[in-house]
Amino acid sequence: MYNLLMTILLVVSVLIIFAVMMQPAKTDNALSSLTGGADDLFAQSKPRGFEAFMQKVTLVLGIIFFAVAIAMVYVSSH
């Protein structure tokens, strides 16, 4: 059981890396943190399409990762 959970954890870890790498970059530079980013006041919009999908995939994979990690701790202690 522990080996199966370890394999699932490794697969989910690789999938999380790919999901994070595939997300579009948000170009916030250091100047906006100094000036307060007032020029981007209305630039914040709700993610749509591929970006929203990738955020959901990353969230689900993160939840699976922590659930499997907790299950591994439980299995290894018993």
From TrEMBL:
<keyword id="KW-0653">Protein transport</keyword>
<keyword id="KW-0812">Transmembrane</keyword>
<keyword id="KW-1003">Cell membrane</keyword>
<keyword id="KW-1133">Transmembrane helix</keyword>
<comment type="function">
    <text>Involved in protein export. Participates in an early event of protein translocation.</text>
</comment>
<dbReference type="GO" id="GO:0065002">
    <property type="term" value="P:intracellular protein transmembrane transport"/>
</dbReference>
<feature type="transmembrane region" description="Helical">
    <location>
        <begin position="53"/>
        <end position="75"/>
    </location>
</feature>
<dbReference type="Pfam" id="PF03840">
    <property type="entry name" value="SecG"/>
</dbReference>
<keyword id="KW-0813">Transport</keyword>
<dbReference type="GO" id="GO:0043952">
    <property type="term" value="P:protein transport by the Sec complex"/>
</dbReference>
<dbReference type="GO" id="GO:0005886">
    <property type="term" value="C:plasma membrane"/>
</dbReference>
<dbReference type="GO" id="GO:0015450">
    <property type="term" value="F:protein-transporting ATPase activity"/>
</dbReference>
<dbReference type="GO" id="GO:0009306">
    <property type="term" value="P:protein secretion"/>
</dbReference>
<dbReference type="InterPro" id="IPR004692">
    <property type="entry name" value="SecG"/>
</dbReference>
<protein>
    <recommendedName>
        <fullName>Protein-export membrane protein SecG</fullName>
    </recommendedName>
</protein>
<comment type="similarity">
    <text>Belongs to the SecG family.</text>
</comment>
<keyword id="KW-0472">Membrane</keyword>
<keyword id="KW-0811">Translocation</keyword>
